[in-house]
Amino acid sequence: MRSSIQDRISFLRSFLANPRQVGAVLPTSRRAVRDLLDPADLSGARTVVEFGAGTGVCTREILKRLGPDARLLAFELDRSLARLVSEELGSDPRLRVINDSAENVTLYLEDEPADVIVSALPFTTLPAELRRSVLGAAHRALAPGGIFLVLQYSPLIRAELEALFGGVRFRFSPLNVPPAFLFACEKVPR
Ligand SMILES: C[S@@+](CC[C@H](N)C(=O)[O-])C[C@H]1O[C@@H](n2cnc3c(N)ncnc32)[C@H](O)[C@@H]1O
């Protein structure tokens, strides 16, 4: 089993190679991960998707909260980070680590929409076109009533989330480097 120091070094290496794609120098703190996930009923979810698994800090906590028959699709674009998460957590049959961009999520869902999508993608440093494409894909991938949980290091994404999703709740999680802005967005059934 890898230590959290090894994970931090791997994360930092990926940040130095691709700063705008990785968007942070450290993985999210355990406290901020818990704050991020708390608004969703993960124990009752069948299909959960994660965007930007990094070293797997959210992945691990999602798996702890998921039921035995649920599935988790974890997207990670950085090949070395995707491999790291697969090696560490891939023996869990509920998890599929996907080394592809989050914007392709609907290709992998096999007609069963997601109940919850969790994202720590750095939307403010990603190209605008990619950001819009990922947000649109998240909205299409969610079941009516589903929840999109978003962690950011700035509140700038709020207006865009409110334009797409019906109800957006906002919280601040100070125990993270840097402090995190958390959004819980509900796809309002039509
Ligand atoms: C801020 S880090 C968060 C990592 C981890 N979830 C955490 O909380 O520590 C963002 C991650 O998203 C990944 N990423 C960026 N763009 C992506 C995309 N289009 N699809 C999938 N992953 C992406 C980066 O490689 C990076 O690992």
List the helices and strands and how they pair.
Blueprint: H1 4-17, H2 19-22, H3 30-37, E1 47-51, H4 57-65, E2 71-75, H5 79-89, E3 95-98, H6 105-108, E4 114-119, H7 128-141, E5 142-152, H8 158-164, E6 167-173, E7 180-186
Parallel strand pairs: 1-2, 1-4, 2-3, 4-5
Antiparallel strand pairs: 5-7, 6-7
Helix pairs in contact: 3-4
S-adenosylmethionine (SAM) is lined by residues 21-24, 27-28, 51-54, 57-58, 75-78, 81, 101-102, 120-122.
Short synopsis of the structure:
InterPro entries: Methyltransf_25, rRNA_Ade_methylase_Trfase_N, SAM-dependent_MTases_sf. Residues 32-176 form the Ribosomal RNA adenine methylase transferase N-terminal domain. The chain has helices spanning 4-17, 19-22, 30-37, 57-65, 79-89, 105-108, 128-141, 158-164, and strands at residues 47-51, 71-75, 95-98, 114-119, 142-152, 167-173, 180-186.
Task: Please tell me about this protein's structure.
Helix content is 37%, strand content 24%. By secondary structure, it is α/β, with parallel strands linked by helices. It has one domain: Vaccinia Virus protein VP39 (Rossmann fold, 3-Layer(aba) Sandwich), CATH 3.40.50. The longest helix has 14 residues, at 4-17. The model has no long low-confidence stretch (mean pLDDT 96). It binds S-adenosylmethionine. S-adenosylmethionine binds at residues 21-24, 27-28, 51-54, 57-58, 75-78, 81, 101-102, 120-122.
Radius of gyration: 15 Å
CATH class: Alpha Beta
- End-to-end distance, in Å? 46 Å
Strand tally:
7
CATH topology: Rossmann fold
Main sheet properties = 7 strands, mixed
Proportion of beta-strand residues: 15-25%
Secondary structural class: alpha/beta
Q: What small-molecule ligands were found?
A: S-adenosylmethionine
Give the % helix. Answer: 25-40%
List segments where confidence is low: pLDDT < 50 over at least 5 consecutive residues: none
CATH superfamily: Vaccinia Virus protein VP39
Q: Would you tell me the overall average pLDDT?
A: 96
Shape: globular
- Structurally, the number of domains stands at 1
- Which CATH architecture is right? 3-Layer(aba) Sandwich
Instruction: List the strand order in the largest sheet.
Output: 3-2-1-4-5-7-6
Q: What's the helix-strand series?
A: HHHEHEHEHEHEHEE
Q: Total helix count? A: 8
